[in-house]
Design a protein that fits this description.
mainly alpha; 2 domains; 7 helices
Length: 176
Amino acid sequence: MDERDRRHKREFEPPPWEQEAFERFEKDRHEREEEARLEAALAAAKAASLQPEREPEPAEAEVEQEAAPKIVVGEIAAEQEQARPAGGVGSAELEAMLLGLRHEEPPAAKNYTTVANVVSALMVVGGLGFVIWAAVLFAKVGADQGPTPTLASLLLMVWGFLLMGGAVLLFRKYNL
């Protein structure tokens, strides 16, 4: 392989077994771009037809013709894509939709809340028990016993903290 060959960047070619998928993807992308151009042109036409037309004075018309920039359809599409969020829904519309979903969601039944509180309390007590037990075991570990008892006590302590964290998550889910 020559030094010149290494410097030249080759174009990406999909593997033969994925060629059809790439062609379909390119076709879909091209169709989306065409739709965006058509929507931009339609929006520009609607905006032009909605503006009330008035007869400009002759001096005013000459100034407007000189100062008016020419609009390109591609630029309008780019401006609309920048103004519109990626999902196509504005933040106000999204908030309204989320509020509607919250009202449709059934509230947690009282018996679930009671069960969740009891289970989370038991998990906190168990987690504290594991942490205290691990601390006692860690204090008893001597230098001649090796790393296994130390690692076991630290693992037991992590298990206790995980239990307490799960209890907090369960409590927050059903109470807040």
